[in-house]
Automatic annotation (TrEMBL):
One of its GO terms (molecular function) is hydrolase activity. It comes from Alloacidobacterium dinghuense. Residues 17-203 form the Phospholipase/carboxylesterase/thioesterase domain. InterPro entries: AB_hydrolase_fold, LYPA1-2/EST-like, PLipase/COase/thioEstase. This is Alpha/beta hydrolase. The keyword Hydrolase applies. It holds the Pfam family Abhydrolase_2. Belongs to the AB hydrolase superfamily. AB hydrolase 2 family. Keywords: Hydrolase.
Length: 206
């Protein structure tokens, strides 16, 4: 069994692509959900999209939570490492550029992406975190110099309060990441502005 056998996933190769977007769905989503978003954000990137393995009343997620907004930290750590190993395996199997993996995560997918950035920074060049919040406080501050993060939050988000999103931005900045944080006049749902801003940000990411 190889590392990529551990997840159900979609891989969409693109000939001569320089970058791979690691596409991570929200609670109740699956590996197909955000492929169109990934494609809109960058038509030239390969797409790697796993399905979260934790089931909450049948709804796939990337880690366990005790209730909304309260995460099982031990599980966050375990699952972030498992996902990092999966990505490293997919990079090897498909001959991808390991230094150009950029996560695109929505909600629970954004939270596992930032957990991976904090715990296994070697896996990611950067991350687009759509409606992300603090996934955990790592025991030791990682060195995120050279990493870039785009965080897009909703001012009226009933699931992620703006203060928590601000704390995530600060945590990543303090660790050395180059962070762009936008606060939009919206709720938890994605808007056209999220997509346009993220696409613009990605187009400038070398
Ligand atoms: C989470 O559990 O990761 C966040 O509350 C977002 C969600 O999936 O609802």
């Amino acid at each position: 069994m190889t590392a990529t056998d551990t997840f159900i996933y979609r891989f969409v190769p693109v000939e001569n692509s320089k970058r791979t977007l690691l596409v991570l769905h929200g609670t109740g989503g699956n590996e197909d959900d955000l492929l169109p978003v990934g494609r809109m954000l960058d038509p030239e990137s390969a797409l790697l999209s796993p399905r979260g393995k934790v089931l909450e009343n049948g709804a796939p997620r990337f880690f366990r939570r005790l209730r909304e907004g309260v995460f099982d930290e031990e599980d966050v750590i375990r699952r972030a490492n498992e996902l990092a190993d999966f990505v490293a395996g997919a990079v090897k199997e498909n001959g991808l550029n390991a230094s150009q993996i950029v996560a695109i995560g929505y909600s629970n997918g954004a939270n596992i992406a930032s957990a991976m950035m904090l715990l296994r920074p070697e896996i990611l060049r950067g991350a687009v975190l759509l409606r992300g919040q603090v996934p955990l406080v790592p025991e030791k501050v990682p060195d995120l110099a050279g990493k870039s993060v785009f965080l897009s939050s909703g001012k009226f988000d009933p699931i992620v309060d703006a203060e928590n999103a601000g704390q995530l931005a600060e945590m990543l900045k303090k660790a050395g990441a180059d962070v762009t944080h936008k606060l939009l006049p919206s709720g938890h749902e994605l808007t056209r502005v999220d997509i346009d801003d993220a696409r613009e940000w990605l187009s400038r990411l070398a």
